[in-house]
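Researcher: Please predict.
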Amino acid sequence: MTRRELREQVFKLLFGIEFHDASDLPEQIAAYEETEQVWDAEDGAYIKQKCMDIAEHITEIDAAVNEVAEGWKTSRMGKVDLTLIRLAVYEMRYEEEIPVRVAINEAVELAKQYGTEDSPSFVNGILGKLV
């Protein structure tokens, strides 16, 4: 899989955190892998590890977002937008090999695909304030 495809898989799995307890993430990943997507061993390990790492940092990520999101705390954000912002913030802060501009661009591209008409500019605006 390409980095973009891997990122999209991580996004889809993280989106489920909004509807299930975060402690259920390993079971959600297993169920997704069985019913929706088959990964090779290397891709599967990357996706699983990245999902678990992001889930562990959600409190810190949300705190950083809430500091810059004027009038739009994470509790009020659309679930797609919030998930994309969390993914990008994680990449910006914890993955040194991913340039900040790439993390933002990829989040905006996924927002175009999965979000509303306003999602790309909203995601870009929030992430831009975190740089």
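Model: The domain at 3-130 is CATH 1.10.940.10 (N-utilizing Substance Protein B Homolog; Chain A).
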